[in-house]
Specification:
Distance between the termini: 61 Å
Oligomer: single chain
Number of strands: 0
Largest sheet: none
Strand content: under 5%
Structural class: mainly alpha
Helix content: over 70%
Radius of gyration: 24 Å
Length: 84
């Protein structure tokens, strides 16, 4: 799997979320560099779990849509005359 890369804007937003979490939930401050290191740690070590979950969810959605489409196509069938 290719390494997860975030744009500068995404990194800035994620780092801000980490800093907010530390401040609000842990009553601690964390600097930009440690927050970015923590983000990289999660991206490298756990990113594939989140990525795979997204793939599984997308696969389930596509399967559901295909099943619905199959049902719709089946409903278009017309009765055939029976051979005598």
């Amino acid at each position: 799997m290719e390494k997860i890369k975030f744009s500068r804007e995404e990194t800035k937003a994620i780092v801000g979320e980490i800093q907010d979490y530390f401040r609000e939930e842990l009553d601690q401050s964390i600097g930009t560099i440690p927050a970015e290191m923590l983000m990289q740690f999660f991206a490298e070590r756990m990113g594939s779990y989140f990525y795979n979950r997204g793939l599984y969810d997308a696969q389930a959605l596509v399967k559901k849509q295909v099943d619905n489409l199959t049902d719709e196509i089946f409903s278009l069938e017309r009765p055939t005359n029976h051979l005598r």
